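Appendix B, record 7
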Amino acid sequence: MPPPRQSFFLLGPRGTGKTTYARAAFPKARRVDLLDETLYQGYLAEIGRFHGELAALPPGSWVIVDEVQRLPQLLNEVHRLIEDRRLKFVLTGSSARKLRRGGVNLLAGRALGKTLHPFVPAELGGDFDLERVLAVGTLPIVWDSEASEDTLRAYVQTYLKEEIKAEALVQNLSGFARFLPVAGLCHGQLLSVSAIARDAEVSRTTVNGFFGILEDTLIGFKLPAFAGRLRVREKRHPKFYFVDPGLARAVKGARGAVQAEERGALFEGWLAETLRAYNDYRGLYDDIAYWSPAEAKRTEVDFVLTRGREVIAIECKSAPRISTGDLAGLAAIAALPAVKRRIAVYTGRTARRHDGIEILPVRDFIELLDRGRV
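Structure tokens (predicted):
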């Protein structure tokens, strides 16, 4: 991701390397680390101290403020320094909820919004290994660890302790702890709030709030249904994904090799997050959704990418072979006039076409995506 030329928020889950990126992109920047408890307490007691420490910097200087959601009130001082001193800021954070909940000054458009995702294949280069990706994910803090599974387990525990308990995002922490493994089982599935509430032993309202926390702390996202306006009634419930397959496994306690029954959802979720990452970094599409007629239980298209008036339909299969039956969703959505391209992505090695559908090995698809040709 090329660094912006003006102030920007850099949000992303913990462990995606926001600080590492900011330091590499702006090596001469002044850094303010709000995870430093002494510094944090000092600013909490006297917010004006932040302005006083930075006001002497030359105009145009860059300042990195790490974990800005810990003290949202600082944004008023950041606003003043942008206006009065023409300083530029990288404002990193892992919780959009605390910024919004505080009703703070979000700089009125003076700072761009950027998101840092787990590693995409191009960043892994020759180290890319789909089996390892599905097993432990691509969070940099995990990928670079010599004990990936242990790091993943510690990540989930840290998430509960630091992101949820310390920031007081939920009052019912035990209910949230019961909810997380259930949410892991929902990875890649249509959301059924009633069933999740029953399994987690909490109310429907609480479940909706918990999913909101997963989204606001940037470790999960919902994929909306696409309104194709064909002569069928279409599903409207969103699908839910964790941003990382390793994280989806860790919250439900799965370890070791990927099991056959979880492989499809993990592959689909990884591809969903990869599309989101490339879209955030390069602005390739206007929207990403899924499509499924309500009457046809087995007919679905995993991803529908909208770009202007054109639609690209993508189905992904984690198997090394694709049959005609696997293409039913792509065949059905062809009736929509806006669909200009249909692609099936699978884990085999041979690229071919079938009735206008491109069947691509995952590496071929990623190469096209990386070149902006999807």
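Remarks on this record: The chain has a mean pLDDT of 91. Residues 260-282 form the longest helix (23 residues).
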